[in-house]
Amino acid sequence: MSKADIAAALRIVLPTDCLLWREEDRRPYECDALTAFRQLPALVALPRNEEQVRQVLKTCSRLKVPVVARGAGTGLSGGSTPHEEGVLLSCARLNRILEIDPLERIARVEPGVPNLRISEAAAPYGLYYAPDPSSQVACSIGGNVAENSGGVHCLKYGLTVHNVLGVRGYTIDGEPLELGSRAPDGPGLDLLALAIGSEGLLMVTTEVTVKLLPRPPCAQLVMASFADVHSAGNAVAAVIAAGIIPAALEMMDRKATAAVEPFAHAGYDLDAAAILLVEADGTPEEVRDQIAEIQDVLRAAGASTLRVSQSEAERLRWWSGRKNAFPAAGRLSPDYYCMDGTIPRKHVGEVLDAISHMEARYSLRCMNVFHAGDGNLHPLILFDANDQDSWERAERFGTEILELCVELGGTITGEHGVGLEKLNPMCVQFSPAERAAFAAVKEAFDPAGLLNPGKLIPTLARCAEYGRMRVHRGALPHADLPRF
Amino acid sequence: MSASLDAVLAELRGRVTAAHGARRALRLKGAGTKDFYGESLAGEVLEVTAYRGITDYEPSELVITARCGTALSEIEAALDARDQFLAFEPPAFGADPTIGGVIAAGLSGPRRAYAGAARDFVLGAKLLSGDGEILNFGGQVMKNVAGFDVSRLLCGSLGILGLITEISLKVLPRPRAEETLRLELPAAAAVESFNRWSAAGLPVSGAAWWQGGAWVRLSGSPPAVRAARERIGGESVEAARARAWWESLRHCQLPFFGSRVIWRLSLPATTAPLDLPGDPLIDWGGALRWYADPPGDAAIREVASAAKGTALCWRGAAPQGRFHPLPPALERLHRRLKERFDPHGTFNPGRLLKGL
User: Fold this and answer.
1) How many CA atoms lie within 13 A of B115 on its CB side?
2) What is the pLDDT of residues A66-115, one digit of tens each?
3) Are residues B168 and B293 in the same domain?
4) Is position B61 within any domain?
């Protein structure tokens, strides 16, 4: 199928201004936020309504043309990297908030609505949408559904899968699907759970119904310093063991605080090996009690200094450092590579030690920010993309971190998705039979394999090749080194 | 794993692969407390209760992992000893189900509307497939987006995709304070109040209505519970009596459940009173409404659909099926998933969907 043929077929179902074919118009769509992967799509479709989405899908299905759906392009795993011979279907113009029901506490929105805009629209009713990925100003709810996005408040408020009640959308054949509902626990298999986090491989979402929560009237933040990363890790476990579920529980190591402080001026303790940020939210009395309790636990766990935010401005300033960790990495180094492994919380200290050994081995620096409450690590490996060797070392460094996460009973991706980036680690985490089960799910929804092909599920051949490469280097990379 | 449990698993695997090879159907059975639930029971019985035991429980990780045959009571006792619990309050129907059955059925109790459903607490599952493979989905960590979320898909699957052999669940600390209030209110006003209180951020963890009275449970920090009690008013119910009442509701042990025919309607929480004879038992702040001895199937399904909900025949004859019918597009997806996960129709045929 030539590009001209696809364009001709799509022109019948889309107005001219909804189709981009010139190279300079397609260029902005060549990558998501994982810029190491770039590919120009054959065409870009920008439908304005659900019916146009359906027509694009029907047309592509008939012509056997791959379709890659895209939200705001803030994804970190190459999940919306275009297909060379396919249509990039942008949901950006499907950006209306269709309904807010303050009593039922739900919002019905189109997929292109930015995450934060839902909370802004719900604010007059004292409500908000809880999942808050750090890109929430830009990232779209459709993308959040595709990736099952998290954020810093997941431990208490859950991921996208816990906060989305239903999705509407279309299969590749243009058949309408409604999964989930405002009425809980409907009949049949929980296909909504499959759709959330399916990275655009199963359907294209055109409407999302989310749960809204009452905004807690008050929030306060404790900042605790620790002389070594192990005590900080143990303190995280101690907070949970004390029966406290904080609104957020984040860790940053010294390299991360040192990187953000010069421009975020957050007021971090730069002498500490690691700091913890622990937030309590609720009514003023509730917050007061919980903050006191959190301080007791952290003190007993060996915190060298404890500070409690004394104003909303101070709380936000302390958060600003954490939320600016990625841009700070960008200031320190031409490029950075963000990892997303998750481990059981008890292994935090070990993993941070292992990462610091890897830094020496790969001759690359790595700063660590960490959703400690969820066991979700975000090591930021600093490298230079103009230096091919530096990028290759960064990739190997990242892969080794992820393989360590799997060894410790964790996973290769906590919230960023597999996309193109983590196809090799998927071979490590899952057996051939498990990968076949994923392929079976894909086939049930999309037998022709046209929706976002080549993502999420590695092929048998790829895993075989990857296995040979790993064995070639020894059963584990650097088998002679301590692996904690 | 001890040698004897290895042997139990090997035997289960042998039975499964033999049935699969011979194209015989298996009926997976835990404690049998939910034999009444689902479309039909068919196939030779495969008892899984011998494959039991908690394999891992670390309170500071908020995760418990157990083999499918583990009794719910054993899990709840282990959690209780560390002041934690299963926040979705699975119903036990006055008996002692297995955790495998709890997750395969995916049913949740009164806290479901506030803390989340069974599926919200599933972190990982192992699945024994017809060809004897043990597939591991999800894990023991809070966040995991590697691959499709098959472990959550298994929750509520009624065993039609394979035998769930092991489950990891997120657990929560028990609330520091809990209090139940009772108010005299008509059903419509109760449902409206339930939703208003939740929207205002009051720590509601149960909201039910029966026979002219609303029952509201508050859970959380002592000051938050105190403040909510003052705001809501009503009569404070003595702790033991309150606990007994919520347990009876959770386990379907209230006198209401003695009725001959019972329907369970799932609805948007703010739905106005339905045009059906008799007073419902209302739970989940209005999202779950039970009716005893209502008119025929077609009428009640129509009323539920019109309210954007679904109706399930919980007890009594259901010639047109227990579950609310699925739209054709969804039914087709169910068939395709079943064909791929269980190509020979080995597991629980017809239990979730007739002919599947």
Assistant:
1) 26
2) 999 999 999 999 999 999 999 999 999 999 999 999 999 999 999 999 99
3) no
4) yes
Contact of A252 with A322, CB cutoff 8 Å: yes
What are residue A370's DSSP bridge partners?
Answer: A251, A377
- Write the CATH number of the domain with boundaries A218-326: 3.30.70.2190
For every residue of B139-204, DSSP letters joined together read: -SSS---SS--HHHHHTTSTTTT-EEEEEEEE-EEPPSEEEEEEEE--HHHHHHHHHHHHHTT--E
Residues of B whose CB is below 8 A from A57:
none
> Is A156's Cβ below 8 Å from some Cβ in B?
no
Q: What is the pLDDT of residues A400-441, one digit of tens each?
A: 999 999 999 999 999 999 999 999 999 999 999 999 999 999
Residue B261: per-residue pLDDT? 95
Q: Do B153 and B245 share a domain, yes or no?
A: no
Closest by CA to B264, choosing from B109, B40, B48, B80, is B109
Judge if B123 and B217 occupy the same domain: no
Cα separation, B340 vs B81, in Å, equals: 42
Are residues B263 and B232 both part of a single domain?
yes
DSSP SS3 for A247 = coil
Residues of A in contact with B301 (CB under 8 A): none
**Topology (CATH level 3) of domain A97-214:** 3.30.465
Residue B120 domain-assigned? yes
Residue A479 in this model has a pLDDT that exceeds 80? no
Please, which residues 180-219 of chain B have a Cβ atom closer than 8 Å to chain A? 192, 195-196, 198-201
Question: Are residues B270 and B241 located together in one domain of the fold?
Answer: yes
Question: What CATH architecture applies to the domain A333-472?
Answer: 2-Layer Sandwich (3.30)
- Let me know if residue B330 belongs to a domain: no
**Residue B353 is assigned to a structural domain of this protein:** no
Q: Provide the residue ranges of all domains of chain A, joining segments of one domain with +.
A: 3-90, 97-214, 218-326, 333-472
pLDDT-wise least confident of A50-54, A210-214, A450-454, B319-323 = B319-323
Q: What is the pLDDT of residues B297-311, one digit of tens each?
A: 889 999 999 999 999
Same fold, A3-90 and A97-214: no
Report how far residue A340's alpha carbon sits from residue A265's, in angstroms, rounded to the nearest whole number: 26
Give the A:B interface size as CB pairs under 8 Å: 266
pLDDT for B1: 64
**Tokens 């092909």 sit on residue:** A453
Residue A245, pLDDT > 90, answer: yes
Domain region containing B119: 3-173+336-341
Interface of A with B in 392-411 (CB under 8 A): 409-411
Q: Do A417 and B60 touch (CB under 8 A)?
A: no
Hey, is the C-beta of A187 within 8 angstroms of any chain B C-beta?
yes
Q: Answer whether A193 sits within 8 Å of B119, measured CB to CB.
A: yes
A144: which 2 tokens?
A: 């959040």
Residue A345's contacts (CB-CB under 8 Å, 6 or more residues apart) are A233, A236, A237, A240, A372, A373, A375, B60, B61
Specify the residue for token string 């449990």: B5
Residues of B in contact with A417 (CB under 8 A): 145
Domain count, chain B: 2
Q: Do residues B129 and B222 share a domain?
A: no
Rg (CA), chain A: 23
Q: Which residue has the tokens 């976002």?
A: A452
Alpha carbons A364 and A356: distance in angstroms, whole number: 10
- A3-90 CATH: 3.30.43.10
- Residues B211 and B245: their CA atoms lie apart, in Å, by 14
Q: Which of B196, B340, B352 minimises the CB distance to A188?
A: B352
